[in-house]
Write a structure and sequence with these properties.
The protein is mostly beta strands. It contains no helices and eleven strands.
């Protein structure tokens, strides 16, 4: 079983900072890209940031310059440093990972989602 466990959400004041973490575990051959998405009621889930195993990061225009995505050296954990938070950033944030597993002698790529963590930006 492949799991993503998120942490770090909570209530923060406008202009404040928050750091989200997401750790992958399970029978994983390799972890490729990892990313963060967010969603509010009535809206589509949107990409916040993606970081590949090797290469450039990619950010939603609305968070560029404020958020930073990173991974640990083992590439099993992804972080999202959120600075200069705005009320519009309020959402449930979901961790996502593209993982490769071995099943029935075949390599398989799977998308795995975390359970979500709430970020609330309010005075």
């Amino acid at each position: 079983q492949v799991q993503l466990v998120e942490s770090g959400g909570g209530l923060v004041q406008p202009g404040g900072s928050l750091r989200l973490s997401c750790a992958a575990s399970g029978s994983i051959f390799s972890i490729n890209a990892m990313g963060w998405y967010r969603q509010t009621p009535g809206k589509q889930r949107e990409l916040v940031a993606i970081i590949p195993k090797v290469g450039n990061t990619n950010y939603a225009y609305s968070v560029k310059g404020r958020f930073t995505i990173s991974r640990d050296n083992a590439k099993t954990t992804v972080y999202l440093q959120m600075n200069s938070l705005k009320p519009e950033d309020t959402a449930v944030y979901y961790c996502n990972a593209d993982v490769t597993i071995v099943a029935v002698g075949h390599y398989r790529d799977l998308e795995v989602w975390g359970q979500g963590t709430l970020v609330a930006v309010s005075s």
